[in-house]
Amino acid sequence: MEKDTKSNLQADTAVTQPEKASEIAEYTNSGIKAPPKLTLFALTLATALSLFGILEPEAFMETTQEMNHAFMMAAGHWVVIIGSLFMLSCFILAFSPLGRIRLGAPDSTPEFSTLSWLSMLFAAGMGSGLLFWGVAEPIMHFASPPPLNGAMETAGAARMALVITYLHWTLHPWGIYASGALCIAYFSFCKGHSLLPSAPFRAALPKRFRISQAAGDIVDVTCVISMLLGLSAAMAMGTMQIASGTIVLGNTATDGGMIPTYLAIVGLLVAVYMLSASTSINKGIKRLSEINMLLVVLLAILIMFGTSVSQSISTLFQALIDFTRFLPELLFTPLGAEKQPEWNETWTANYFLSWIAWVPFVGIFVARISRGRTIREFVMGVIIAPSLFSFLWFAVLGGASIDAQLGVTLDLVGDIENYPGSG
Fold first, then answer.
1. 8 Å CB contact between 100 and 6
2. pLDDT at 87 (0 to 100)
């Protein structure tokens, strides 16, 4: 039986390879690969939303907040459940016989080394937020914890602060990214569809039906808007955090307002982005990702040795034990679901929706750099490896911040609440 299953899996990936070129050519000729009308519609809609935000910022903010609040109150619980199902489904695929399927031709090999691949994965999924929230989130959960059940209350506020932070920044975000990227990669590299978020939808619906192309177009446009809003929010928050850092260091004068500083930071970010995007992945994004990973690791080491190595390791292992203990309950039951439902709206569900909004952007890139790897290797690399580093990162920064707060050496709670980029 196992032999037959293996043969079927190999046939599933191999049978479509000879047809891949004709499939892609057929889709290109039919306009699915680069439909000008779809591009124009997405651009028009994105421009309209941008102008609305620029010309009427208060009305735009009020409208989006009301829509977000209404959605969260109606479906916030389901957002947590769906995020957990995304993550669990990846592990089920990885450790089933399907995990041996290779993303590409059966004899294909990965384009990038494992180290470069992991560096690009991490750079794509986590940005400036990791620096700020590495300190801020554990402190905020420690100072204002959500309603916990009896077993969680016995763990103590400091330990549960790290557990909650792990819930938001480790397995779940990477599981959400992996589920979207895996769908795009499989249907693109194994079934010959374009490297677009709509690839699974176009593959599932018969091509002879007009609804197939219409559904695919709707998915692609929705993903464009999702990426626009997600990138805008991330860049705005990152810009404010960088600007605030320059003020703390005394390098920025605030007498003339912060607009010039914001524009300078955005201009620099755009210039770096354009520079990396204008080169090939091997020359641009790959090198930047490797440098980014090196700097992050060095920063974590410096903080660890600047506080206490033994304390950081002890905090890490205790937090991992607590996280493993409480994760089964947190998978499908949001914290504060009954006593304080607005907490889930502000934190867990809000995080999960943010990760989902980033799936089209991160998913396409992760799929692009993962060709030639098996599904099992893909899941372990995309979910487990970055999560392990995030476990260490938050244990080091979060543990140090909580120790500083408990030791009354710093008022981090007050500093974070007054920080412009914390909203």
1. yes
2. 96
Q: 350: which residues sit within 8 A by CB, 6+ positions away? A: 72
Which residues, 6+ apart, have CB-to-CB distance to 405 below 8 Å? 139, 142, 143, 411, 412, 413
Give residue 180's pLDDT. 93
Tokens 């091997």 sit at which residue? 282
Answer yes or no: are the C-beta atoms of 161 and 315 closer than 8 Å: no
Q: What is the pLDDT of residues 148-160, one digit of tens each?
A: 877 788 888 889 9
Q: What contacts 278, CB < 8 A, 6 or more positions away?
A: 284
Query: Alpha-carbon distance 68 to 76, whole Å?
Result: 10
HEC letters along the chain: CHHHHHHHHHHHHHCCHHHHHHHHHHHHHHCCCCCHHHHHHHHHHHHHHHHHHHHCHHHHHHHHHHHHHHHHHHHHHHHHHHHHHHHHHHHHHHCCHHHHCECCCCCCCCCCCHHHHHHHHHHHHCCCHHHHHHHHHHHHHHHCCCCCCHHHHHHCHHHHHHHHHHHHHCHHHHHHHHHHHHHHHHHHHHCCCCCCCCHHHHHHCCCCCHHHHHHHHHHHHHHHHHHHHHHHHHHHHHHHHHHHHHHHCCCCCCCCCCHHHHHHHHHHHHHHHHHHHCCCCCCCHHHHHHHHHHHHHHHHHHHHHHCCHHHHHHHHHHHHHHHHHHHHHHCCCCCCCCCCHHHHHHCHHHHHHHHHHHHHHHHHHHHHHCCCCEHHHHHHHHHHHHHHHHHHHHHHHHHHHHHHHHCCCCCHHHHHHCCHHHC
352, 171 contact by CB (below 8 A): no
DSSP bridge partners of 374: 102
- Mean pLDDT of the residues in the chain: 81
Q: What is the pTM of this model?
A: 0.84
Spatial separation of the C-alpha atoms in residues 262 and 140, rounded to whole Å: 26
Any idea which residue has 């307002």 for tokens? 257
Do 352 and 79 form a contact (C-beta atoms < 8 A)? yes
Nearest by Cα to 334 from 323, 320, 345, 322: 345
